[in-house]
Automatic annotation (TrEMBL):
Keyword check for Signal: yes
Name used for this protein in its record: Transporter substrate-binding domain-containing protein
Keywords assigned: Signal
Organism per entry: Fulvivirga sedimenti
Signal peptide, first to last residue: 1-17
Residue ranges of domain Solute-binding protein family 3/N-terminal in the record: 21-244
Length: 324
């Protein structure tokens, strides 16, 4: 099988030109970016999309501040996972968003995490991650004190040591914590459900790279195909995702595999793709096995079976709950 793959790549390389290698920098940001073999879903999505376009990513893991410095200095070709800012857009070309970071409130067990907006956090100490491009969203909105830590892990330690009241954490990270570390989460944490801040995540490449524009176009096309064929869900280990897959301004629910469940899905992970946000965020239909259905009732009964969820999920330490 490996021999066939190598031969295919050699044939493809000669047919379409040399395989391009990109040196991409990221920091440790579980479960999105990390050193292998740890979970790194954003790196996996980006690598898969680039490889479909015969681009080989070389991932460099280092401190986030160094990632930004090396990008600006031209020591890196790009990054697999960045939030967009005007400053970064001055020298980087950004893809369409391929993930959506929805930041929710997390507190110690028993805390009130019902805040609906940042204004509800007045007087509270809230942990955020330093050097992340929160932009003006945290300025002037609230009288809360935003305390910068080097990572979500450091902020968790501060939270458990009563040094901060809350931390802003990505909802997808928390979803994996609840899946793999449910006992620890239930023991130590109170988790909010409201998204207090939403940022789109992008692949970016330096504008002065000779093939930058072409790589971005092909990357965007590859992501759209991955969403349509279910491989995107597969990498993120999500049963349903919500995306505007056909570019009509409406979002659809896309299923991984063919087991849709026995009831209309109550939740899904949103993906903004063709624009910064779809015109209409109400779900307009369902995609299953590449076919579109207008409503849940239109879906054939053969698909309405429970998804296979093994009871013995292997433990994975997304966060370390041990207090030093």
């Amino acid at each position: 099988m490996k021999l066939i793959t190598v031969l295919f790549l050699l044939i493809a390389s000669s047919a379409f030109g040399q395989i391009t290698t990109l040196k991409l920098g990221s920091d440790i940001w579980p479960p999105f970016t990390n050193e292998k073999p740890e979970m790194a879903f954003a790196l996996d999505v980006v690598s898969s999309a680039l490889e479909r376009s015969f681009v080989k990513p070389e991932i460099v893991i280092q401190d986030f501040e160094k990632v930004l410095d090396d990008l600006e200095a031209g020591k890196l070709d790009g990054s697999a996972a960045l939030w967009k800012t005007p400053e970064r857009e001055s020298f980087l070309l950004f893809s369409q968003p391929y993930l959506q970071n929805q930041l929710i409130l997390v507190g110690r067990k028993g805390s009130d995490v019902s805040a609906a907006t940042l204004n509800d956090l007045n007087g509270k100490k809230v942990g955020i991650v330093s050097n992340y491009a929160y932009g003006d969203d945290l300025k002037g909105e609230t009288a809360a004190s935003f305390i910068a830590g080097t990572s979500d892990q450091e902020n968790l330690e501060k939270l458990l040591e009563n040094e901060i009241d809350f931390m802003l954490v990505d909802a997808l990270l928390i979803q994996y914590v609840l899946r793999y570390q449910s006992e620890e989460a239930a023991r130590y944490l109170e988790i909010g459900t409201n998204s207090l801040l939403t940022k789109s995540l992008h692949f970016a490449i330096r504008k002065d790279h000779p093939d930058a524009a072409n790589i971005i176009v092909k990357f965007n096309e590859a992501i759209l195909k991955m969403i349509g064929d279910g491989s995107y869900n597969e990498i993120l280990q999500l049963n349903w995702i919500k995306a505007d897959v056909d570019g009509d301004g409406n979002v659809e629910l896309l299923l991984k595999g063919s087991a849709a469940g026995t009831q209309v899905p109550s939740g899904s992970y949103s993906v903004w793709f063709n624009s910064e946000q779809p015109t209409n965020t109400l779900t307009s239909g369902f995609y299953i096995d590449g076919k579109y259905y207008d409503s849940w009732n239109d879906i054939p009964s053969q698909y309405k079976t429970p998804p296979s969820n093994p009871l013995d999920v292997q433990p994975v330490n997304i966060l370390n709950f041990k207090i030093k």
